[in-house]
Design brief:
With about 400 residues, this protein is of the alpha+beta class. Helix content is about 55%, strand content about 15%. The longest helix is centred in the middle third of the chain and has 71 residues.
Length: about 400
């Protein structure tokens, strides 16, 4: 995934997540407010039912209490002894109160005295012997709350879809200048690498001719030119692969990677000798893998080049190759453990003090991913680095 797409997706994620967080917070607050209003309405309804039942009790019309649907009631005397009703309530505080019990509202109601003095005297006598407390219980109808939840969820779902669409549109608008810059940069790299190809090839060809025709292989100046030219050639190869790897046509065939590795070590001999590095080689003969020769060459070249570049003068490079894996270990500067987690990312370098573009290990990772190989790196800063490429069984 290129940087433009990553930036677009990150923008959409941040935009949608932050906006949805605000909407969800407002939705929760709105829901809690509506829930309180709903429960207050339910309490007022229960209070009205209690007033009606109290009136029927005063009028000694207890049969009418049974006409209340979805309502449980219990009548108690002054001593809190159950007299009548369709449930036996559990009461902790015998005073006027409405509280939520499970999915129901329960109310303790103190019966008022009659307004007529004669009736009041009789009613007080009635309270001593008969009804003094009324307890009613009614299930809360959560239908309205359920519908409210459904509406909020539907609204949030629609808002999420709209935010993704708006975020995508805004993101495309914002990254358009960046995409244009990246396009111009890619065109520059492509043109630059194309222009570099001819002089690099000319320099290397003429060096070979000078070595053959003029027999000056041992000239130090010529060796330095050859080392610099090969370094420049490798940079060109990395830049070309980075630009064209999505369009590359691979020629997969049976390849003797043991022989190829020996050839690449010979290619880097001048660089190795220039730093007086000691090679410890253990290459199993005739290891055959089905692959494109250019891909395996790039893997070997990048790993060998890094082992040379980040090694110390007079250091060692250990190379092992068998049918299961390729391992290369150097005695160089190592890699900071904080950089190991993203060392395979493009443009990430193990050490800023050395040259390069940070393309080598990313190219190795891309090629290994294509073939199903597993690449691992272990390093101890200041001592050594070890890279292992494990071949898959199918290769």
């Amino acid at each position: 995934m290129n940087s433009a797409k990553k930036s677009l997706y990150r923008f959409i994620l941040f935009y949608v997540a932050s906006t949805m967080a605000i909407l969800v917070a407002f939705s929760v607050l709105f829901f809690e407010y509506q829930k309180r209003v709903f429960l207050d309405t339910q309490r007022k309804s229960l209070k009205l039912d209690a007033d009606k039942i109290a009136f029927y009790i005063q009028q000694k019309q207890l049969d009418k209490i049974k006409s209340f649907k979805n309502l449980k009631y219990a009548l108690y005397n002054r001593r809190k002894v159950f007299i009548d009703g369709n449930f036996n309530a559990t009461i902790t505080k015998w005073k006027l109160d409405i509280k939520k019990v499970g999915n129901s509202l329960q109310m303790v109601y103190l019966l008022p005295p009659p307004s007529n003095m004669h009736m009041k005297h009789n009613f007080l006598q009635l309270q001593k012997k008969h009804i003094f407390y009324l307890v009613i219980k009614k299930s809360i109808d959560y239908t309205i709350i359920d519908k409210l939840i459904q509406k909020i969820l539907l609204t949030l779902s629609i808002a999420f879809i709209l935010l993704v669409a708006i975020g995508y549109f805004l993101g495309k608008l914002f990254i358009r200048p960046m995409k244009q810059t990246i396009k111009q940069l890619n065109e520059f790299v492509q043109d630059a690498t194309h222009e570099l190809n001819t002089p690099i090839s000319t320099i290397l060809n003429n060096i070979e001719m000078m070595e053959i025709l003029h027999k000056c292989q041992d000239a130090k100046e010529l060796k330095r030119v050859k080392v610099a030219s090969k370094t420049l050639s490798k940079i060109y190869e990395d830049l070309s692969y980075t630009k064209l790897n999505h369009n590359i046509q691979r020629d997969l065939k049976e390849l003797n990677i043991s022989q190829l590795l020996q050839e690449r070590l010979e290619y880097f001999k001048l660089l190795i000798d220039s730093k007086k590095i000691v090679l410890i080689i253990n290459i199993e003969a005739n290891i055959i893998k089905k692959a494109d020769k250019r891909d395996i060459t790039r893997v070997f070249d990048n790993l060998i080049s890094n082992a040379i570049k980040y090694n110390k003068n007079g250091g060692t490079i250990e190379i092992n190759l068998n049918k299961d894996k390729f391992l290369i270990k150097d005695s160089g500067i190592g890699i900071d453990k904080n950089r190991l987690k993203d060392i395979f990312d493009r443009f990430k370098r193990a050490n800023n003090s050395e040259g390069g573009f940070g393309l080598g290990l990313s190219i190795v990772k891309e090629i290994c991913s294509f073939y199903g190989y597993k690449v691992e790196i272990n390093s101890k800063e200041g001592f050594s680095s070890e890279v292992t490429v494990c071949f898959s069984n199918k290769s």
